[in-house]
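Supplementary notes for students who missed Thursday's class. We covered one full example, reproduced here. Read the sequence, then the structure, then the short commentary at the end.
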Amino acid sequence: MAAGRTAALAVVALGVIGLGAVARWRWPDSEPALDCPPEAVRLRSDGVATCGEGEVPTGAAALALGRRLDLNAATEEELALLPGVGKSLARGLVEAREAAGGFASWDAVDEVPGVGAARLKTLQAATVLGPAPDAGPVW
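Structure (token representation):
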């Protein structure tokens, strides 16, 4: 009886190993799905990303595609998506931006309560101070 269980476990183990090998062989590779850099990606009206014509992605779509946000135009909800920036800091950034008529420099961003050296570096990596159609990838 023990030999039967051992054989059954061996068959199951070989099946799992075989399934893993097939999954790995068929798994998508690391090549990008589009043949253009992130700054050239556009969104069609149906929401599909393409290298051709379409709208420049903004907000969450831009972040998902590896693009930078315009800190002077991003909404509170969009800013809250950034690592290390929660709802409270996002609200503070938007309020400070509106009070100043926009951020003219990173020094002005650094003056917002809650923005320290680490968060400033994150903001500088993920955002720009102005339109960002060709700002390049975030990370």
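Commentary. The radius of gyration is 23 Å. Helices lie at 2-26, 59-64, 76-80, 87-100, 106-110, 117-126. If anything here is unclear, bring it to office hours.
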